[in-house]
Structures are given as structure tokens and as C-alpha cells.
């Protein structure tokens, strides 16, 4: 299938497909006698995997590592599990930071419950921050 057909089927753009190919996420496509890229149906499965990896928050480099392991004929399951463990730990840390930020903002908001402009010092922009 040609690059435009593949892009439509994958819900992406031809530019993205060329980028994936340049970055080694997709194998170089065979070329037709006229020089057009000619992708196999398996390429669509690979693009779907790339999109699922991105949706899980993996980087393209991490996704490429997984694909490289698979391309070498090995099962990448252990590597994927380790990446997902790391991603979960990162998200847990971000959630803790967001919770702390929320508590800080709520405290500031509580402090600013009553607006008292006459209490503001000319040296401060706003005493609530």
C-alpha cells in the first residue's frame, strides 16, 4: 500500500510516517518501479503499536527499543514491564506533586477569602502570593 493509503488507514499523516521511518520505528518500505513507497499490511500493525505505546506515555526512543527487541526475534515483555513500572512510578510522583500544589493553592485561596486591598503594602504586588 502506498504511503497516503497507509496514513489514512493508520489515522496519521504521511509526514509522520516518514518521520517514523527516519527514526527507525518503521522499516524502510520497498519501492515500486516508479519509486513510490510500498508498505505491507504488517506496517499498519506496527503503527498501531507505536500509537498505543505513545498513549501509555512511552517515548519514541522507548518504543523503538521495544521494536528492536522484537525485530531481533525476542519477546520484549520483560522490557515493557520494566518501562511500565518506571512510567507508573513517574505518574505517582507527578500525582503527589499535584496534590501538594493543590494543597498550597487551597491554603493561598483560604488566606485570600476576604479581599482587603487596604491591607496591602505598597511594597508588595499582592499579599496573597
* End-to-end distance: 59 Å
CATH level 3 topology: Multidrug-efflux Transporter Regulator, Chain: A, Domain 2
Strand content: under 5%
Unreliable parts: none
What would CATH call the class?
A: Mainly Alpha
Blueprint (SSEs and pairs):
Layout lengths: L2 H8 L3 H9 L7 E2 L5 E2 L2 H15 L4 H12 L5 H35 L18
Antiparallel strand pairs: 1-2
In short:
This protein is mostly helical and 129 residues long.
Characterise the protein shown here.
It is a single chain. This protein has one domain: Multidrug-efflux Transporter Regulator, Chain: A, Domain 2, CATH 1.10.1660.10. 61% of the residues lie in helices and 3% in strands. The chain is built from 5 helices and 2 strands; from the N terminus they run ααββααα. A hairpin with a 5-residue loop joins strand 1 and strand 2.
Which features would summarize this protein structure in a list?
129 residues; mainly alpha; Multidrug-efflux Transporter Regulator, Chain: A, Domain 2; two-stranded antiparallel ribbon; 5 helices; 2 strands; 61% helix
Amino acid at each position: 500500500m502506498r504511503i497516503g493509503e497507509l496514513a489514512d488507514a493508520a489515522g496519521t499523516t504521511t509526514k509522520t510516517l516518514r518521520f517514523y521511518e527516519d527514526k527507525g520505528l518503521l522499516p524502510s518500505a520497498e519501492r515500486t518501479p516508479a519509486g513510490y513507497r510500498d508498505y505491507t499490511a504488517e506496517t499498519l500493525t506496527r503503527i498501531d503499536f507505536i500509537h498505543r505505546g505513545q498513549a501509555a506515555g512511552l517515548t519514541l526512543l522507548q518504543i523503538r527499543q521495544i521494536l528492536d527487541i522484537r525485530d531481533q526475534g525476542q519477546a520484549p515483555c520483560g522490557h515493557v514491564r520494566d518501562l511500565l513500572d518506571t512510567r507508573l512510578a513517574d505518574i505517582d510522583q507527578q500525582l503527589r506533586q499535584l496534590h501538594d500544589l493543590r494543597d498550597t493553592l487551597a491554603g493561598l485561596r483560604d488566606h485570600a477569602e476576604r479581599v482587603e486591598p487596604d491591607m496591602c503594602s505598597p511594597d508588595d504586588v499582592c499579599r496573597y502570593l
